[in-house]
Amino acid sequence: MIEDCRLIEFQQKGDERGHLVIIEGNQDVPFDIKRVFYIYGSDRDVIRGRHANYHSEFVLINVSGTSKVKVDDGTSQKIFHLDRPHIGIYLPKLIWKDMYDFSEDSVLLCLSSEHYDADEYIRDYDKYLTIRKEGEHA
Ligand code: TYD
């Protein structure tokens, strides 16, 4: 599962007027985009996320500034550095994620495969581990 978390490099359409990055659902990201939100104004010592999702897949992009994303599949962990506006990280469902170390100018754009549903968020890490273990034996 952790191996399924991967960086995606989007094509940059730059010319003398500046840069343009295009992200189309099911083409540049591996899902239909149903929801877009963005996170900014978080101090460097803030940890956001701290959850996993039963169904939602995400792509996270620092369109401005930098942050780090720690992903955890219940067995392994990996840290991704987001530091360029044309680089995203793809997160499949059922991945625990922490976003942290936000630069002052960080704007973290989040694309999701699902509409918001609080019930599909797993916010308790022990519960998450139990769900993962049950999944292994299913
Ligand atoms: P939260 O999931 O804690 O944000 P993060 O994962 O970035 O730390 O969300 C903060 C609040 O916003 C919480 O009350 C739920 C609400 N929210 C929505 O209503 N819709 C959304 O799409 C998201 C991401 C959050």
Helix content: under 10%
Beta-strand percentage? 35-45%
Termini separation (Å)? 16 Å
CATH topology: Jelly Rolls
Low-confidence stretches: none
The counted number of beta strands is 10
The whole-angstrom Rg is: 15 Å
CATH architecture descriptor: Sandwich
Describe it for me?
The chain has 138 residues and is mainly β. Strand 5 (67-72) and strand 6 form a beta hairpin. It has a five-stranded antiparallel β-sheet with strand order 1-7-4-9-2, with no helix packed on it. Strands 6-5-8-3-10 form a five-stranded antiparallel β-sheet. It is globular, with a radius of gyration of 15 Å. The protein contains one helix and ten strands, in the order E-E-E-E-E-E-E-E-E-E-H. Bound molecules: thymidine-5'-diphosphate (TYD). Thymidine-5'-diphosphate (TYD) binds at residues 35, 37, 39, 48-49, 116.
Quick structural gist:
This protein is mainly beta and 138 residues long. It contains one helix and ten strands, in the order ββββββββββα. The longest helix is centred in the last third of the chain and has 13 residues.
Features:
138 residues, mainly beta, Jelly Rolls, five-stranded antiparallel sheet, 1 helix, 10 strands, 9% helix, binds thymidine-5'-diphosphate
Strand and helix layout:
Blueprint: E1 6-9, E2 35-40, E3 47-53, E4 58-64, E5 67-72, E6 77-82, E7 87-91, E8 96-100, E9 107-112, E10 121-122, H1 125-137
Antiparallel strand pairs: 1-7, 2-9, 3-8, 3-10, 4-7, 4-9, 5-6, 5-8
The structure holds thymidine-5'-diphosphate.
